[in-house]
Amino acid sequence: MLSERKKKILCAVVDSYIDKAEPVSSKDIQQDYLTDCSSATIRNELSTLESMGYLVQPHVSAGRIPSEKAFRFYVNELLSESDLTSAEAELIEQYFARKIGSIEDVMTAVTRILSELTHYTSVVVKEDMSDTITAIKLLDLSNGKLLVVIVTDSRVLKDGMVDLPDDFDENMIAQAQRWLNKIFCGKHVSEFINFNYPFALVNDEFSQYNSLFKKIIDVLKKVSLLNGMDVEMYGENKIFEHDVVNAQKFLTQMEDKVQIAEILTDDGGADGSVTVKIGSAEHAPEGCAVVTTRVNLGDNVSSAIGVIGPVRMNYKKVLSVLDKISSILIDLVGNKGV
């Protein structure tokens, strides 16, 4: 548990580091943030915060920089609301006052304005789960692997495989396929993805294979989710404004759009939810933070919108811009539909 003074000092270090990207000294804090506190007192508190894992001292003579633990505490406990300027709010409204005829137009508008205002890489992931399942196929690859495929009214979703038990023969595969088709054919993909595995629906003769059925369904869910995603990204080069040293690594990570989509949508999927992931320990790209929010774009169509940038991103600005954009999207979808 941090004292109020430690919280103020930690907040000052994080705010200063976000603003200047330089180690923060006790003198900086005393002059710019806590004028009523002596430098000696601040030095002692900085030392304690360092021993607690919140701060790092790059060099003996240098000031401190926040650790990922500090940024997490900052987001959870210390972050205050930041209002957009009237010019920023007006710019967002102007973007969406233009004619928007489709979900794709929405995605393009969101990525442009989000990156422009935050100066980070913006990402929008559309999850269209409106397809109707027409068939589920289980294909024995004869190497101990089973290929699981979903056929919908508009596409084929595949690339999912599970390991087969040695005693799971062709007859069992056929029966399993019939069972899956009986339950899921005619349902939307969204219903399938939100489906909880019903152990009671499996015949007694298959009870010993409950874990296999669970694996098959989990694989099918993942395949459905990834195939239903459309990813739009903008402003990857914004990283050069913040971290030239690690820019190449960042750009390489941004090339894997499937991984980026998974990161943005691994949040439970509730409309209006806001998620902040900091560093690789929280499944963000290494050295990065990811801030996302969820917005419903219509029946069985959801979107995750967010930004990816360095851990020292301006969380106040990002969250304020996301809040404004998501509120406009909610009104847009509710009043006009897209």
Explain the overall architecture:
With 338 residues, the protein is an alpha+beta fold. Helix content is 45%, strand content 20%. It has twelve helices and ten strands. It has helices at 4-20, 26-32, 39-51, 68-78, 86-97, 103-118, 170-184, 189-193, 210-227, 247-254, 257-265, 315-335, and strands spanning 55-56, 65-66, 121-128, 133-140, 145-152, 156-163, 229-234, 274-278, 288-298, 301-310. The strands form three sheets. The protein has a five-stranded antiparallel beta sheet, sandwiched between helices. A three-stranded antiparallel beta sheet has the order 4-5-6. It has a two-stranded antiparallel ribbon with strand order 1-2. The longest helix is centred in the last third of the chain and has 21 residues, at 315-335. The relative contact order is 0.14.
